[in-house]
Amino acid sequence: MKALVTGGGGFLGTAICRALKARGLEVTSIARGDYPHLRELGVETRRADLKDLRALTSSAEGADVIFHVAAKAGIWGSLADYTAANVVGTQHVLQAARSAGVPRLVYTSSPSICFDGRDHINAGADLPLATNFLAHYPRTKALAEKLVLDGNSAELATTALRPHLIFGPGDPHILPRLVDRAQRGRLRIVGTGKNEVTLCFVDNAAGAHLQAAESLEPGAAHAGRAFFIGQEEPVQLWNWINNLLVRLGAPPVTRQISFRAAYRLGGFCEVLWSTLRLAGEPPMTRFVAAQLSSSHSYDMSPARRAFGYRPRVSSAEALERTLAAMKKN
Fold first, then answer.
1. Looking at the 3D structure of the chain, how many domains does it have?
2. Ordered alpha helix ranges (H), the chain
3. Could you tell me if residue 196 is inside a domain?
4. Whether pTM exceeds 0.85
5. Is 82 an annotated catalytic residue?
6. What is the pLDDT of residue 179?
């Protein structure tokens, strides 16, 4: 089997490429950057933007499945940039898949497209999409997921996976930022600190993509549908963060800020960064305040029934692997 991975050089994309190569499969990655570590794995690497439809179509030729992982993530930036990467880019991936005759496409979506600011506890796959978005990332990812699911057909079977808060060795974003802010005394518990969330170990997220692809075909239980992916046991977010920090020798977070105060601060920062065109991301936004203070945990049973998803790495083992890697680095 031959697989094409968009965004193969990223955190999740690399894990998917590694898992595919471990099965002895032929893998091509298409991404904007150069990733020597992929070539070391035996992955064919091609440099191109998702705006380049010709490069996408050429890369998709002969592929049995496309894993569309590439996206513009983050909490800040222009709507035009997010739309170009996440919406137009997805349109091009779908068009390339159809032109090249690829029969399967697994799309990496995000639970944030359902986030409406309220607590979601053990939410299932029937959780509706949000109608109001506090950031461009979830807004454009929601549009992209709809394109993918609406594109499910007899010629191209599609499905969307929504891994939540991906962590693990090599994480370049979430955990390093948390540790850095804690060490500088700039991290606060937002809200009561009792909110529960679902986490997703990176190897489990990659495994879910491969499991979904294996049985994906027209009429399959997961064709044309979206599924939450993560560890089966949710965690109390701030207890989990503090346990991680302490074991890394960093100070635990003890100071708190109410959700309302954090939300107001986020709104102020958004206006300030927009008005003055300040560089980088604001230290707080309304979306981040709502995310850090609310519960968002998800039910894995729909994915288990549809395509046999089970996280192969337990939460305890996932934490130990992550700590070992972070201490080493």
1. 1
2. 11-22, 36-41, 53-60, 79-82, 89-100, 136-150, 174-183, 202-214, 237-247, 259-276, 286-293, 301-307, 315-328
3. no
4. yes
5. no
6. 87
Query: Tokens 């496309």 belong to which residue?
Result: 66
CA distance 251 to 288: 22
Annotated catalytic residue, options 137, 263, 298, 309 = 137
Containing structural domain, residue 308: 2-164+201-231+297-312
Q: Is residue 65 part of a domain?
A: yes
Question: Has residue 254 been placed in a domain?
Answer: no
pLDDT by residue (tens digit) across 9-22? 999 999 999 999 99
Express each pLDDT in 237-265 by its tens digit.
Answer: 999 999 999 999 888 999 999 999 999 99
CATH code of the domain containing 144: 3.40.50.720
Instruction: Give 238: exposed, middle or buried? Use CB within 10 Å, 0-12, 13-18, 19+.
Output: buried
Let me know: does 170 contact 9? Beta carbons within 8 Å.
no
- Residue 238, helix vs strand vs coil: helix
**pLDDT tens, residue by residue, 203-236:** 999 999 999 999 999 999 999 999 999 999 999 9
Does the residue 328 lie in any domain?
no
Q: How far is CA 83 from CA 140, 269, 300, in A?
A: 6, 23, 29
